[in-house]
Structure formats: C-alpha cells, structure tokens
Amino acid sequence: MVRKYVLGKYFETEAVVKAVEETKGEVPFLKKESDGIYTYNMDEETAVYGLGESIRGINKRGWVYESHCNDDPNHVENIRSLYGAHNFFVVDGRETFGVFVDAPQKICFDMGYGKREEIRITIDEGGYVLYILEGDSILSIVKEFRKMIGRSYIPPKWAFGYGQSRWGYKCEEDIRRVAREHRSKNIPLDSIYLDIDYMERYKDFTVDKERFPNLKALAEEMKEQGIHLVPIIDAAVKVEEGYPVYEEGIKNGYFCKKADGKEQTVGVWPGNSHFPDFLNDEAREWFGNKYKILIDQGIEGFWNDMNEPAIFFTQDHLKEVFEGLEEFKGKNLEVGDFWKMKDLVLGTANRKEDYESFYHNYKGEKIRHDRVHNLYGYYMTRSAQEAFERIAPDKRILMYSRASYIGMHRYGGIWMGDNQSWWSHILLNLQMLPGLNMCGFMYTGADLGGFGSDTTEDLMLRWLELGIFTPLMRNHSALGTREQEFYQFGNTDAFRRIIGLRYALLPYLYSEFMKSVLKDEMMFTPLAFACPEDEQAKLVSDQLFVGESIMIAPVYTQNAQGRYVYLPEEMKLYRMKSENEMETEILSKGHHYVKAGLDEVLIFVRPDSMVPLAKGGCCVEETDTSSLRLLHFIKDKGTYQLYNDDGYGKDYDMDMHTTAITAYADGKIEVSGAENPKCELI
Ligand code: MIG
C-alpha cells in the first residue's frame, strides 16, 4: 500500500509514473516536527536500507547522508553525498515501511547520526511530495516502489560484455592497440571507451581530426572484431565562435542564464562553457538530437559525465578570488590569513553560491538551479534517451550517466563514479548494489580495479571476481595512474579465465537481469531481505544473492586466502578457476571458512536451483547458447526460467522469450518454451 502526501508548491520531477491519489491528514510512522522536517524513533534492532548510491554499508544506520548530486572523487567514510540523489529507503524494525521523498532540492537524511536512535529528514526550502509505503516484507515494499517509478532501463545485450576504458587513450592507434592486445591474447572484449580526449578541444559531438581522422571507419573496423566504441559526453558546452552547438544554444536561449539574463560561464574541461538547460523541453530535445552526429558514425553507446553538474570554477567567482588575494599580496601572512588565502584558491569547485547563480527555464517559469539541482543529470540522460527513441526507435542504445535522480533509471544506467584502487572500495561496490536496485538502478557497476590511485594485480583480480556479476563490467582508470588493462599484468591467464567465466555466465546473468527488470524486482539482494526470519542472515553485509539461484561472497582483503561466509541454508559451493575448471563442495547452513585462491571465483548455488553456462566466446555475439551446462544443486527437482532475446530489439514479452528448464534428482532434464538448448548437469 502506498500513501502520498503533498506539501506546498512542489516541483514535478516525473520520478513517479504511476498515478497515486493524494492522502490528506497525518503522515503515518513519521513524526512531523515542522514543514520539511520529519523524525522517527528507532529501536536498537532497527535497520535502514536504501538511499541508492551512497557510502558506508548496506544498513545505512549510523551516518548522515545528503541528497545533493556531487562530483567528489574521495569516496571516504566521512562524506555525505556522491553523484546520485536517491531519496528512497526502507525502515526495518518493530515496523517495516518505505519512505520516498520526491523533491529535487537538497535533503538531509540523518539515520541515527545526531541521535543514535533517531531518523531525521530535513528537506531544504520548497515543496515536496512524500510517499509512505507499506507491505508485508522489505521485498514487497521495494517491488511496490519500483512499480510506482516505472520500468528500469534495458541496455543492449552486448553491454553485458567486458568493457575496457581508460582516461588516457588519445588516438586511434591507442584504441587499436587495446583491441589487438585483447584479441591476440584471447581476452574477451565487447567495448572500448573513448574518454574526453577523442573530442576536439573537449567540445561535445566533435571528433579531433588529427588524433581520430576517421571515427566512422574506426568504429566499423572495431565492429568487425565484435567491439563497440563508447564515447563520453560531458554536460557543459564550450564557448567558441563557429562551434554549432554553442552558436545554436546561444541563438535559441538554450543555456542556463544568470539573474541578469546573460549565460552563466563555468570552467570545466572545455574551458569557458555554458550549461544546456535540460529542464527546458525544447533545449532537451535539441541537445538529444546531437547524439545523432555520433550515431551516424556507427556509435551505439554513450556515457554522460560531469552532469551533477560539476563546476571547477565560475568566471564571476574567480574575479572575487583575485580581488580577495589582493588583500594578502606583499604581506607577511599570519597563519590564519594563510589558511584563508589557501581556502580562497582551493575552494572554487562545486560551490553553493555558484549553484545559486543561474536559472532554468522550466515551461516558461524561471527556476533557480539549486531548487532543482538533483535533476540535472537525470534530465541530461533523459534528453539522450528520448532522442534515441526518435533516432533509432527499434534499437537499444547503451546509455549510462554519472549523476542521477530516481526517475532517471528509466532512461539509463549509472556507473559508481571515481572510486579508488583501494580494497575497501571492492566492498563499497558490493554494498552499493542493493541500494541502487531498490531505487530502480539495475544497469550499474563500478570502475573495476579502481579509477584513482595505482592498482595492483591482486586487487584487480579480486575486484574482477565481484565485477563479473555486475551488469556493467568495465575496467576504467584515471590519467596518470598505473595502466591496468589485463595484459599489463603477469598472470594474464587468470584474468582471461575469469572474464571467460563471465561470458559463460551470460545466459544466467542476462536472464536474471531481464527478469528482475520486467518484474520490478531486485537482482542483488541482501541476505536480510531474502531471509528475514534468520537473525544471523540479517547481519551479513558482505555477501549478496545474485538472482534467484546463487549467493556470492567475494574476497575483498589483501593477502587473504579465503574468507568467512554465512550460509542461510545448505548450499553447493562451486569454486571456479574457469568455466571448465572447478571443485564442488556441499556446505551446511551456518558459518564456514571457505578457501579462495587469488584466481578462484566462489559461487554458492541454492537448493534445487541451477545456473546455465554457455560456451563463452570473444564477445557476447559469439557466445553460444545452443547447449548449456548447468551448475546445480538439485536435491529433488528444480526449474530454471531462462530469458533470451536478440539483445537489440525492444519487444520484451516474457512468455515469448522464456524457456523453462526442469531437472530432477535422477539427472533427467526437461526443456520447454521459446528455445530448445541441449542441457547437461555438471
Ligand atoms: O574531472 O573525463 O568520472 O570516469 O575518466 C574528471 C575524465 C572527468 C570524471 C569521470 C571519469 C572520467 C573523467 N571525468
């Protein structure tokens, strides 16, 4: 059951697509302290789940989170915001209920930080819509919420393959080398990413003629090898006479403007730039149409960056900085003044005052940016996806974004932003997955191996052992860090085998992704959600169910040779070096220490469940699903619902694409439905 409460003049974010009638009167569960402030008193046992892309554990209790899309590359424990604003959470204690605050301004979710026992929600000035959801379990509440916000984005099937990226590939030859190294060393690969260096002076929808003389031919050459090029698009448009995107934007008033009616000039990668006004319907359509320039050159996927939007500086504020510095010039500085000077110079990025300095034209109404800040990345990505519907209505195009708000999950996926090559960030990657699924973000993953800092071979391997289960599986790293393509390391063979396992797992991972999207369910489920009666399971925060058949428990500490695992039921462990090399062991319900060598993936199969393995190829296209080998723990009888489609089309009818595979304890297998693969239990 869902109830909707409205306060004041609110902004229609279009996060919710299902019509919900407004309820008048008191909000249940929460105590209204005043307009925009609600509290809830927690028992000692109460847990809080959700909030999508945010730091810390699966249980969010004990910290304060701010909903404020922020470009912060330091994903450490004491920050409050990342790139997304995902205002949905579930309280699980003496009462179980869900809360969604639908409002694009800044919101503070104090989950027992100020007072250990108190949840305190503080919504910045402005109207809002509050939804309270009830159900008989966490999972049913999540499902109801997901139904409200509409079906999650579905990428093309090739986007479930491996992607190689690096901020630093500068020319066609760099791209060719990556392709060649993967193909010659038999490491499967489906995509290579183009970071900002493919553009001419960082101008969106341009290609540098010197370094990329013929993108169309390059895209074709890559496609012949089964590889897709995926270029980045940044939010801000460079100010440059003669650059059509700039000139059209100026002529039509499509950029965000200051109070004085002049375009706000911000400094980001292209230098002086303007922000397209994605909240303006016409501007949104105009910018979206520009993606066609690249689609016409054979591009089938994009990633949208810098759309919180990130600001390195504004020209207006730089003037203030220089004026401020005058005061210190030529003086013998006191320590206090020295800090002041330092803050002045270092504090130019993503400033509150800058976000208050420009306006959107939303259906003719002028709205100050900070009032709708959290929608910017959402509407940028919507701009692209709405255009894809016009440009290529029958084809799925890959799209994912850095900034997001709930609602954007219908238009694209997200990646988890600028993490670091730290062991703790493997765990953070795992712990963010369920919260994101709760909020509708299904196509997601982190920069494997870590974006910032230098990686190590063992970190890369361990991270990959989690990464092969995430829908988005991309190795990405920052300029200046250690190169981390798999062929840069000694044990390339181990990487090849683990990536190979991902491709073998494709029928399973794709089926589980599609079923969870089409049924509005989670793909990555905490044990606490799946086994609510099990007091031990409730406390497990470093293992997840992935789909209906398996549990994963990746190793995320350096120099470990295994880890402790809790099994909420008897399971069969497959300890896998590759799709062909594996040991199995049946483990009882309870605690175990399980060994896991550096090149081994642990897959725990649930009773009467199966995992179909294909014969992996060098890319998704070449993966052969005509005969399937089944990992299984059949004690009596189990049925697996396999989902398969052409991977491009948009006809997602479940019945049409589903095959039921039933296996019995005596080894008998029955197959019925859309396809007729040969099946064998292993
Ligand atoms: O200020 O385009 O998160 O993936 O490599 C950094 C360069 C801008 C941030 C993205 C990252 C990308 C980088 N970008």
Describe what this molecule looks like in 3D.
This protein is of the alpha+beta class and 682 residues long. The strands form 10 sheets. Strands 25-24-22-18-14-13-12-27-26 form a 9-stranded parallel sheet. β7 and β8 (96-102) form a beta hairpin. α5 packs across α10 (376-391). It is globular and about 80 Å long. The two termini are 44 Å apart. The mean pLDDT is 98. Residues 167, 195-196, 232, 305-306, 402, 417-418, 476 line the site of ligand MIG.
Structural class: alpha+beta
* Rg over C-alpha atoms, rounded to the nearest angstrom: 25 Å
The residue ranges in which pLDDT falls below 50 over 5 or more consecutive positions are: none
Task: Please give the largest β-sheet.
Answer: 9 strands, parallel
User: What's the count of strands?
Assistant: 41
Apparent shape: globular
First CA to last CA: what distance? 44 Å
Strand content: 25-35%
Q: What number is the mean pLDDT?
A: 98
Give the number of helices: 15
Helix content: 10-25%
Q: Which molecules other than protein and nucleic acid are bound?
A: ligand MIG
Strand order in the sheet with the most strands = 25-24-22-18-14-13-12-27-26
Fold topology:
Elements (H helix, E strand, L loop, with lengths): L1 E6 L23 E4 L2 E5 L5 E4 L12 E5 L16 E2 L2 E5 L3 E7 L4 E5 L6 E6 L4 E7 L3 H12 L12 E3 L7 H13 L6 E4 L20 H10 L3 E7 L2 E2 L5 H9 L13 E3 L2 E4 L6 H15 L5 E5 L7 E2 H12 L8 H12 L5 H4 L3 E4 L2 E4 H4 L3 H16 L6 E4 L2 E2 L7 E3 L8 H15 L5 E2 L1 E2 L8 H11 L5 E3 L16 H27 L5 E2 L1 H4 L13 E3 L3 E3 L9 E6 L3 E6 L5 E6 L2 E6 L5 E5 L4 E6 L8 E9 L4 E7 L10 H4 E7 L4 E5 L4 E4 L1
Parallel strand pairs: 6-23, 12-13, 12-27, 13-14, 14-18, 18-22, 22-24, 24-25, 26-27, 37-41
Antiparallel strand pairs: 1-11, 2-3, 3-10, 4-7, 5-9, 7-8, 8-11, 9-10, 15-17, 16-17, 16-19, 20-21, 28-29, 29-30, 30-35, 31-34, 32-33, 32-35, 36-37, 38-39, 39-40
Helix pairs in contact: 5-10
Bound molecules: ligand MIG.
